[in-house]
Amino acid sequence: MTFSLIYDFLIPDALEVEESRYDYSSLFAPVNSLLSLIYPQSSPQSSYEPYLQSQRNLVYEQPSTQDAPKPLANCGQNLVPNCQASRYRSYDGSCNNKHYPSWGMANTKYSRLLPANYADNIHEPPVSKSGNPLPNARVVSYTLFPDIDIQDQKWTLLAMQWGQIMTHDMGMIDGTTQSKAHATQCCTNEGRLIRQALSSPLCYPILIPLNDPVYSKDRQQCRNFVRSTTDLDRGCSSGYQPAEQLTVVSHFLDLSIIYGSSNNIAASLRAGVGGRLVVNVNKNREYLPHATNKSNSCDISNEAEICYASGDARVNQNPQLTILHLMLHREHNRIAKELALLNPHWSDETIFQETRRLTIAIHQQISYYEWLPIFIGKQNSYNRRILYSTQGWVNDYDATVNPSTLNEHSNAAFRYFHSLIAGRLLLVDEHRFSYTYNALRLSDHFNRPAVIEEDDNLDKLTRGMAFQPQEASDQWFDSEITNYLFRNGRKLGDDLRAIDVQRNRDHGLATYNDYRAYAKLPKANKWSDFGDVISPENIQRLVQLYESPEDVDLTVGGSLERHVDGTLVGPTFLDILTEQFWRTRVGDRFWYETGDPDIAFTIEQLTEIRKASISRLFCDNGDEIHLMQLRGFEQVSQTNPLTRCDNIPSINLNLWKDIQTSPPTSPLPTPPIQGQTWTILPSTWLLPWRQ
């Protein structure tokens, strides 16, 4: 699917900003040249006029300014948070690093591996080395990434979906709702270009060629795309430096999707009793609480329709995502109830924070030790010290490592996994039987989550995720997301792959050739130099689209590479993903495997946390799920058969009875501000109070 699983399902809609960043009309000045590239047989004059004047009675609409963000009084990256010593991480990610307290904080900039690539070195989207426009994003999409249905032979749709959970947890572009169509419009819902968009600093619409295989039949001219908000827009930059995009959620893998990235959001989700989160009960089953302003989050016809609230605004985007939100929400409440029974003297606050701390640890364990090896390779993960074979603590925290999410990761490499998305969702019973004729069409349920409360669909869709194959990790993308994304009952929707390409350019990512060099591949001087990792057929397609090897977008080139053995990606994206997940763990002072005595789990507790699995999560939090395979991301097979939930290891919460909340002073050295990372302690080393 932005929103990039695999995953970002990152959506092309942004809030308006107050000031123009530059004269956007310069982007449309070469539009004739762009169309002449698409239609070389036509002159620019003859191709541009039919494009915009194809309908004489075109009704121009004014761009909406609803929900424009108010200027920030301060800029997140420039703030110095008031940090207090705490056993628990903050909601917004601040104060994780004692020396750089704004690192990883919500409302701060994405990091970059390579300098930005803007046409004007400030913020104008890139062009080719010759100065001509880059190939049309929609043409790139249907030329290189068409719909060919090839299913993965090993991994389930759940693997894809968990990737979306992870990418949402680590970033959400400021200026995009990433949940549904936003009020800001550059094109109408019917694909008509809004005249005023030509001079708007926000609009960067995806133009539709006259011979488009799908949209031209509906006489569409463009698809909406609004640029991401940057530090320039927020007044956090001088205007003489390249613009940097912001994320409104914390950069850490900290379940901000469940708890929110601010104190206010967290407070709104708490029940205020027993450390639990708020739920809505329907037919004796607990669901997520209802959103207070449904039309802002869901595509619904009336306020009576179901629309959920959670820590992340994108919770309603697709049924599978909503279900995983619910599973984690229920997991929190399940653990909170147990801890309250074990420790009746604890306050609501203590129960909540200890439960949150444990639930985040479960999330990190599943994400790294169960999910990550599938995508970036088990051996690679151990070689790069992302995973460890130890029964003890892992003290690899490095206060000099900035854990902020990489722009290249969130807005290029991770989006490659959109290819894993399936356009039909199977409803599967307890014996893993399903009828394909009643499978749900994905585009019918974007931002319309009510289907999960119908009949026993919740369990059927949950089982379906762990049973149905994901689509293969390749260059083929399901048409449900390339022609019908967020269609909301209309005949056609958006093209997620074109959005991926456009977002790559919007964020000024360096070229594919530059990142090849970063990943220690030889930089291509001629097209055939791509042949070390890209097939001749795809090189020929690139030649037809781009003027030079120097022009190829990172999102495009990285998606065409042959996979590294044991992984689901090629070498360039693998290097970016590996770097990101290394930073995410070593730059997180609260990482669950730490031995820091101020915040560490005991060895016995850590041993229990390492039993966590996605299958156990489903067993504990489904309504009537009694059978699962041990490895839920892997398809059912002779080596991974269905088994009763009683046979799947679970965490013994008795070890959380009367937790020592104030351990003695740390015997560990103060993390260096300069120099090498910490040495991994032997697994037999015990903290003094555990000896």
From TrEMBL:
Gene3D superfamilies from the UniProt entry: Haem peroxidase domain superfamily, animal type (1.10.640.10)
Keyword Heme on entry: yes
Residues at which heme b binds: 418
Name this protein carries in UniProt: Peroxidase-like
Family annotation (CDD domains): peroxinectin_like
GO-annotated molecular function: heme binding; metal ion binding; peroxidase activity
Organism: Ceratosolen solmsi marchali
Gene behind this protein: LOC105364637
UniProt xrefs under InterPro entries: Haem_peroxidase_animal, Haem_peroxidase_sf, Haem_peroxidase_sf_animal
One Pfam family this sequence matches: An_peroxidase
Key words, A-Z: Heme, Iron, Metal-binding, Oxidoreductase, Peroxidase
GO biological process: response to oxidative stress
